[in-house]
Amino acid sequence: MPVRPIPEATVARLPVYLRVLLEMAERGLKTVSSNGLAEATGVNPAKVRKDLSYLGTYGTRGVGYDVEYLTFQVRRVLGLEQIWPVAIVGAGNLGRALANHKGFAERGLRIVALLDSNSRRIGQKVGGLLIEPVEELDRVVKEREVAIAVIATPASVAQEIAERLVGAGVTSLLNFAPTLINVPAGVSVRSVDLAVELQILSYYEERRTAGRS
Amino acid sequence: MPVRPIPEATVARLPVYLRVLLEMAERGLKTVSSNGLAEATGVNPAKVRKDLSYLGTYGTRGVGYDVEYLTFQVRRVLGLEQIWPVAIVGAGNLGRALANHKGFAERGLRIVALLDSNSRRIGQKVGGLLIEPVEELDRVVKEREVAIAVIATPASVAQEIAERLVGAGVTSLLNFAPTLINVPAGVSVRSVDLAVELQILSYYEERRTAGRS
DNA sequence: AACTGTGAACGGGTTCACAGCC
DNA sequence: GGCTGTGAACCCGTTCACAGTT
User: What is the pLDDT of residues A52-104, one digit of tens each?
Assistant: First the structure.
């Protein structure tokens, strides 16, 4: 049990540590220092140490961290000892990209449903998964005990889908639609807007270019 | 010209303001208050005002902000008066999802190339765009004056692709591969790891569920 | 009265620097 | 000597609260 509460910023980096720890284990590395983790993640070494200190004191002074044991601890703290069943709503390119993605399994996630409203898509297979009609949302979420869902629909229906998901019992949403999702307290939402990411780059790009003739 | 430098956190929110401003203009809204923007973006009103104050003093006390004029200013600051030619490397589902995405144009971005190494994909058309061989990367970037590129390849080749992109003159990268990208100073990188996003949700989900029997 | 613009207070997160342990 | 763990200092971003403007 973590004694101190873990800061949000730290929580957001834990999955990155986990990713490189898994790589390191694969390469046969037994121990790793905060410097090693820093290089592999792009996070500064002091920050790595402070982040890991929130989980407990799992390092050995003069040596570093045991890769396997630290992996276990990070997994545990993130709640990734279990495999979360995830539903994806929207079987456009993005939804299919996610459904196809290998490597979720190793990272504690399994896509158990891919729903769409377009009848021409329903029945198609994507990465071993059948596209099902969005009308089945409620039943699917309940039967497959989905707690985390991905919204990969057009913005125009995203809010409505979010409400149906929450109504069915989903309490975590990852939203790719370019629109704000309102949810009741107690439900988490993370949003990724691809155009926004590119537009942020545009700002810095503009500064670089500005002044050239 | 902005007098004060604009904080990173503010820059990251400007595209979101832009998005809702465009929606509001579409709905015929002439002016909007910081409260209105706050509701539509999920950002708190004081933060909205402070953010916008970095661009200049474009509001009217007692009234709010002129939607059209503010849109123009946000666009200008973000460097989105021009349309940036963007290249995508990797024509898997994710690359194709991006290439297909409508609404980039309105938001100052145009996908001008979609490159892949798989010969079976080359020559296919995606959203009016031809998939071209990655060998052409250097030529394509130079000829089409690409400054911003998207990496949608497997992690194993992402660093190599990044280096080729930078070598060809790209100075902003949006990376979807689950791996750290090292670039020389003066190049911007933003990374989006879809599994990481889900794993962050897992943490909060776990806390919610913990203690249930 | 409504709403912006902003100093000032606050809080969280980052980084430093070093004591403590192997 | 090498590396962790952490108080303390610092920095950035957020929020408050109100003076200023229409």
Answer: 999 999 999 999 999 999 999 999 999 999 999 999 999 999 999 999 998 89
Nearest CA in chain A to B204: A188
Rounded to whole angstroms, the Cα distance separating B148 from B83 reads 11
In terms of DSSP H, where are the helices of A27-136?
34-41, 45-53, 67-78, 93-100
Of A11, A93, A100, the CB nearest to B200: A11
**Angstrom distance (rounded) from CA B5 to CA A195:** 23
Q: How far, in Å, CA of B38 to CA of B47, rounded? A: 8
The reply to whether B208 touches chain A by the CB within 8 Å rule is yes
CB B190 within 8 A of CB B174: yes
C-alpha distances in Å from residue B29, one per residue of A186, B26, B67: 33, 7, 7
CB of B105 less than 8 A from some CB of A: no
Detail the protein residues whose CB sits closer than 7 A to any atom belonging to strand C. Answer: A 7-10, 44, 46-47, 49-50, 60-63; B 33-35, 45-46, 49-50, 52-53, 57-65
- Whole-number Å distance between alpha carbons of A146 and A143: 8
Residues A12-50 have pLDDT tens digits of 999 999 999 999 999 999 999 999 999 999 999 999 999
Spatial distance between the Cα atoms of A150 and A172, rounded to a whole number of angstroms = 9
Give residue-wise pLDDT tens across range A111-121.
999 999 999 99
Structure tokens at B29: 């809204």
Q: Tokens 């284990």 — which residue?
A: A25
Rounded Cα gap, residues A207 and B29, in angstroms: 31
DSSP letter string over B93-143?
HHHHHHHH-TTTGGGTEEEEEEEES-TTTTT-EETTEEEEEGGGHHHHHHH
Q: For residue A213, what pLDDT band results from cuts at 50, 70 and 90?
A: low
